[in-house]
Amino acid sequence: MTHLTARLTALLGSDVLYRFRRDPVALTAFAILVAFVLAALLAPWLSSMNPHDPAQIDIMNSEIPPVWTSGGEAAFPLGTDVQGRDLLSAILYGLRISIVIGVFAVMVQMTLGIVIGLVSGYLGGKVDAFFMRLADIQLAMSTLMLAIIALAVFKAAVGAEFYEDMAIVMLVLVIGFAEWPQYARTIRASVLAEKKKEYVDAARVIGLSAPTIMARHILPNTLSPLLVISTVQVANAIISEAALSFLGLGMPVTMPSLGSLISSGFEYIFSGAWWITTFPSIALITLILAINLLGDWLRDVLNPRLFKG
After folding, report:
1. Fewest CB atoms within 10 A around its CB: which of 37, 69, 172, 257?
2. Is Iron tagged as a keyword (predicted)?
3. Quick check: is 263 in a domain?
4. Domain with 90 in it: what CATH number?
5. Helix 180-194 with 223-246: angle, nearest 10 deg
6. pLDDT tens sequence across 31-54
7. Could you give the number of structural domains in the chain?
8. What's the pTM?
9. Domain range enclosing 289
10. Residue 5 binned pLDDT confidence (cut-offs 50, 70, 90)
């Protein structure tokens, strides 16, 4: 862990921070992302109601338009949805769920990918062939397709009520297991290059075990691509969760994510209640754009071939 911390600190050294402070796109994206994360963390204090609490929801307040339009009310700045929930409060709570699923799904992906990539690249031979063919098979199928199959089977097996209680856990696991090949292939490529270097030979000579060499010596030298992949994968995981929720296989309507909110208002968009889908969509697009812009900036900064001094 000390080696990983030191390597991460080196990657985020003065040169990276220097370039970050002078890049308006990166600064703007980072500010937006921080604002979204803080809004999600402080949702209970920023919201006028808890949209997950049925006792606070009044169906008589359903489909109230935004405050600046005719019929709007000051108590509901962005209007309400079909269930009478304050849309701003629902977006803040939904943002929290979407970010939590995105981050933890990436942690699952990273854990699996790092372990498989290290073992596959270091040991080589039949072990490497097995894991890489497994990765090829999984990459041949889209994340969404695998997730739909897994979640549909699970929901049918355990029932809708139990599924609602386990929705966050299942989404994290399914999205995480579906995307590990991205990390595994990247780590494997780095390991193949690193294991031929002299410091690895020296570690073998002094009697260090293979797990120790992989974890303490090779892994710290693969952090650069991992940072870039993780940033992009968080955005992809949030998009996957939103798509699954839109299809009815994600978060339930009682605990909506941004995808669930978009789905719940989609059928009413042509009947005049445009705000129910529009505002969650804007929040989701803005969040994904900010994460992707940061990922692109990290890729450029950490790629020595693109370094311009």
Report:
1. 69
2. no
3. yes
4. 1.10.3720.10
5. 170
6. 999 999 999 999 889 888 888 888
7. 1
8. 0.84
9. 12-54+84-306
10. low
pLDDT tens digit sequence for 248-258: 788 887 788 88
The residue among 91, 81, 35, 38 whose CA lies nearest residue 58 is 81
Residues 281-304: pLDDT tens digits?
Answer: 999 999 999 999 988 888 777 765
Which pair of tokens denotes residue 129? 């062939």
Q: Among 127, 133, 76, which Cα is nearest to 279's?
A: 76
**Does any domain span residue 75?**
no
Q: Distance from first CA to last CA of the chain, Å, rounded?
A: 31
**Amino acid making up residue 228:** V
Query: Do the Cβ atoms of 150 and 173 come closer than 8 Å?
Result: no
Asked if residue 60 belongs to a domain, the reply is: no
Position 307 confidence tier, pLDDT thresholds 50, 70, 90: very low
